[in-house]
Amino acid sequence: MTAADTRLPDAPSAPIVKRRGPSPMRRRENAAAYILITPFVVVFLVLLVVPLVYSGYLSLFREQLVGGNTFVGLENYTRALTDPSFLSGVGRMAFFLVIQVPVMLALSLFFALLLDAGVLYLQKLVRLGIFVPYAVPSVIAALMWGYLYGQDFGPGAQIADIFGLPAPPFLSQDWMIFSIMNVVSWEFIGYNMIILYAALRSIPRELFDAASVDGAGTVRTAWSIKIPAIRPALILTTIFSVIGTFQLFNEPNLLRSLAPNVIGIDYTPNMYAYNLAFINRDANYAAAIAFILGIVIMVVSYTVQLSSQRKERAGR
Amino acid sequence: MTTPTTARPTATTGPALSGAHPDPVPPADRPRKGRKHSSDQPRRSVLLSVVMGAVLLYFLIPLWWLFVASTKSNADLFSTFGLWFSGDNSLWANIQDVFTADGGVYLTWFRNSIFYAVTSAVGAAFLATMAGYAFAKYRFPGGNLIFSGILGAVMIPMTALTIPTYLLFANAGLTNTPWAIILPSLVSPFGVYLMRVYAADAVDDTLLEAARVDGAGELRIFFRVSLRLLTPGMVTVLLFALVSTWNNYFLPLIMLNSPDLYPLTVGLAQWQGAAAAGSGSQALFSSIITGSFISIIPLVVAFLFLQRYWQSGLSSGAVKG
Question: Please, what CATH class does the domain formed by A76-315 belong to?
Answer without folding.
Answer: mainly alpha
